[in-house]
């Protein structure tokens, strides 16, 4: 018989919260991305306010913008990125590059063990296995978010 889990055991075994994909239809939850000069912005339609909101997601600095039309939002995004790059140039600093390729990943010990075992059985490093798993996950999520053809 297993002893009762201690509070710290319960904390370690707490279920991992997984992001739920946004609903596929409905403007209130519409979300997409825009790209400009290598930067990506997440765009969300705020139905309550009647505006499109954007946020540059691949910078450590907070850069947000909003507009009432897609064309205006695109102009605001371009202006925000261009302004950021101009500010960096004026100050003589390199624009932030927040993604070094290194990632500290915390996961439940049992999942860590299962991933290590799976990687070993596939004769790949744990790092290569995790990179491949993330690539597959990202591709599946992006494919699920594609507008339905028809």
Describe the structure.
The structure is a single chain. This protein has 150 residues and is of the alpha+beta class. The chain has two domains: 22-99, no CATH class; 100-150. The chain is built from four helices and four strands; from the N terminus they run H-E-E-E-E-H-H-H. A four-stranded antiparallel sheet has the order 1-2-3-4, covered by helices on one side. The longest helix is centred in the middle third of the chain and has 22 residues, at 70-91. The chain is extended. The N and C termini lie far apart (57 Å).
End-to-end Cα distance, whole Å, is 57 Å
Structural class based on helices, strands and sheet pairing: alpha+beta
What helical percentage do the residues reach?
A: 40-55%
Tell me the overall shape.
Answer: extended
Rg result: 21 Å
Features:
extended; 4-stranded antiparallel sheet; alpha+beta; single chain; 4 strands; 150 residues
Q: Quick gist of this model?
A:
This protein is of the alpha+beta class and 150 residues long. The protein has helices at residues 7-12, 70-91, 109-121, 126-145, and strands spanning 31-36, 39-46, 51-56, 64-67.
List the helices and strands and how they pair.
Elements: H1 7-12, E1 31-36, E2 39-46, E3 51-56, E4 64-67, H2 70-91, H3 109-121, H4 126-145
Antiparallel strand pairs: 1-2, 2-3, 3-4
Helix pairs in contact: 3-4
């Amino acid at each position: 018989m297993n002893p009762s889990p201690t509070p710290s055991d319960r904390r370690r075994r707490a279920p991992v919260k997984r992001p739920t994909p946004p609903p596929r239809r409905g403007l209130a939850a519409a979300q997409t991305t825009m790209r400009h000069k290598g930067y990506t912005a997440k765009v969300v339609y705020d139905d309550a306010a009647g505006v499109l909101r954007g946020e540059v997601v691949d910078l450590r600095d907070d850069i947000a913008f909003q507009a009432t039309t897609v064309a205006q939002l695109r102009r605001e995004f371009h202006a925000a990125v261009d302004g950021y790059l101009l500010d960096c140039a004026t100050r003589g600093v390199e624009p932030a590059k927040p993604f070094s390729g290194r990632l500290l990943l915390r996961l439940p010990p049992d999942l860590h063990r299962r991933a290590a075992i799976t990687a070993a059985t596939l004769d790949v490093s744990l790092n290569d296995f995790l990179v491949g798993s993330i690539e597959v996950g990202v591709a599946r999520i992006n494919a699920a978010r594609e507008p339905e053809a028809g």
